[in-house]
Each structure stands twice: as structure tokens, then as C-alpha cells.
Specification:
single chain; alpha/beta; Metallo-beta-lactamase, Chain A; 7-stranded mixed sheet; 9 helices; 12 strands; globular
């Protein structure tokens, strides 16, 4: 679910010259301007170049990432169900056929990020790989009862999807020479997962970290202090994000890392401690939430 995050400015490493891949048809040079004043989960956004062979194909409020490999495309997240046609249109705008998508990956099992998974899977025939603890939700379309947001999520069931592979934390999915590593970090939800992969352009290689959401929010009436196991899981997940290899940070909500501004060259694209700062923000939120509960708020 959506909570805005304010992060310190990311220190500049290298903006570099635009590589040939950035010149694909349909690529926006200023996605921040295109989305100015709009951050809805289904608000249309043009596609944008991230780095190397990775593109942003989501909406103004939800990140969806497309990665080209030597053996086809990989798509991470889909946005909500109503955004699926837009995501497919963005992929086509870049000159790709959605049927080239071989694998679907995901961050966490909430409708705003993967509600369109069934539609995308049907349109592409792609296989879905998930991290630990997300498979049952995706197969059933029903929220995990252990999710702090379960009560609210019950009002937004998702269409069931076929899960083709469940990966343990630390495992790799290699597609056409590109290795995607899964990192289980159950902070935002029980199935929260981050992904890292290497991206190269102009002779420079970076590790992209698509780090999952760091907020510890819940449905009304839920108290984290009544669930110490959930609190410890959230803290464990934040430590995982803090330790990710992370030259270039992506987040499920672009506002969580000023992503649209960074893709538009208005802020530094990369930073040396981006994931550390991102995790620290989540830790502060959790501490504040627990303090509020202790005060009876």
C-alpha cells in the first residue's frame, strides 16, 4: 500500500551520456514532468530508461520494471489490475512485443503492485517466480491472514495466477545471462521481496536494487505490539534492505526514492548509501509506530 517517503538527496556517482538503449521509441526524457501533480496508482506515465537494458514501464504512482536479456524480457510487478493495459502499451511503445516476456517477478503480494499479474500472465504466457511466503496469496488471490493489512486487503481480492517457481532467499533466477537475485525482506508484508541484478552501459556496470516497501502500516485496529513476531520480521527485513548491493535504488512507489526525478536527470540517479538511507527511514517509521501504540494512540 502507499505511503510517501522523504529521503536525503542521493549523492551523484555518474549520470553519463544517454546510451543507445535510451533512444528506443517512446522513451520519455522527463517522466517527472509528465507525472507532475499525478501520483495515482493507475495514472498513465510514459516509459522511461533506467540504466542499461532496464526500463520503467509503470504508472505515475507504481513502479513496474522491464529488463531485456539475451533470452527475452523480464517484468517485475504489474501495478493494479486496471493498469495492466497501460503497462502492456508502454512495453509496445518501447518497440517490444509483450509476448517476449519470459518471466514475471514481484515485490509484494498487494493488489496495487500485482493486481494486474493475472492479466499480464494471460497476455504474455510468461512464467511467474516468487520469493518465500507469497505463493499462496498469488494462487488464491486472497490476502495472507498474518498480513497487518489483511482486513483492508480483503476488500480488494486479486485474480488467481499460476505460480511456476518459488525461490528461497538468496537464490538466483538467470535469464539470458542476467542473474536476478531474490532477497526476502518481510517488512511491509509477509511475502515482501527485493531483487538485484547487474546492469551495464557505456563500459560501466552497476547493481540495480529493486528494494521492496519499508512502511509498517496496517488495517484499523491492528497493533504491532500485540504481534512481536511481526515486529521482528519487519526489523529483519529492514536489515536485509540495508545490506543489499545497491548502486541504483528502485522502489515500488516511485515517490519512495524520488525515482521519477532521478530518471529525468533532476536528481542524482545513483548514490553510495541509497539502500542504507531507505532502510533507516523504515526503521524510524517502525519506532514511531511502536511509540504511538505504547502511548495508546
Amino acid at each position: 500500500m502507499f505511503v510517501k517517503v522523504a529521503l536525503p538527496a542521493l549523492a551523484l556517482l555518474s549520470l553519463g551520456a544517454a546510451p543507445p538503449s535510451a533512444e528506443r521509441p517512446g522513451v520519455s526524457k522527463d517522466i517527472a514532468a509528465a507525472c507532475e501533480g499525478r501520483d495515482g496508482w493507475s495514472d498513465p506515465a510514459p516509459p522511461a530508461h533506467i540504466h542499461g537494458r532496464s526500463w520503467y514501464v509503470g504508472t505515475c504512482g507504481i513502479t513496474v520494471v522491464l529488463v531485456e536479456t539475451d533470452a527475452g524480457l523480464v517484468l517485475i510487478d504489474t501495478g493494479p489490475e486496471e493498469a495492466a493495459p497501460h503497462v502492456l502499451a508502454n512495453i509496445r511503445a518501447l518497440g517490444f512485443d509483450p509476448r517476449q516476456i519470459k518471466w514475471l517477478l514481484m515485490t509484494h503480494e498487494h493488489f496495487d503492485h500485482v493486481g494486474g499479474m493475472a492479466a499480464i500472465q494471460q497476455a504474455t504466457g510468461a512464467r511467474l517466480a516468487v520469493g518465500p511466503n507469497a505463493a499462496e496469496v498469488m494462487r488464491s488471490g486472497k490476502p495472507d491472514r498474518q498480513d497487518p493489512q489483511a482486513a483492508g486487503l480483503a476488500d480488494h481480492p486479486m485474480a488467481p495466477v499460476r505460480v511456476d517457481r518459488i525461490l528461497r532467499s538468496g537464490a538466483n533466477l538467470t535469464v539470458g545471462g542476467t542473474r536476478f537475485t531474490v532477497h526476502s525482506n518481510p517488512t511491509h508484508s509477509p511475502g515482501s521481496t527485493s531483487w538485484t541484478w547487474q546492469s551495464c552501459e557505456n563500459g560501466e556496470c552497476l547493481t540495480i536494487a529493486y528494494a521492496d516497501s519499508i512502511s509498517t502500516i496496517s488495517s484499523k485496529g491492528y497493533r504491532f505490539t500485540d504481534h512481536p513476531d511481526r515486529v521482528e520480521a519487519a526489523r529483519t527485513g529492514l536489515r536485509v534492505i540495508e545490506e543489499l548491493p545497491c548502486d541504483l535504488l528502485l522502489t515500488p512507489h516511485p515517490g519512495g526514492s524520488h525515482l521519477l526525478q532521478r530518471l529525468s536527470g533532476k536528481e542524482a540517479l545513483t548514490g553510495p548509501r541509497a539502500c542504507v538511507a531507505y532502510a533507516a527511514t523504515g526503521s524510524d517509521w517502525l519506532t514511531h509506530r511502536l511509540a504511538e501504540e505504547a502511548e495508546g494512540k
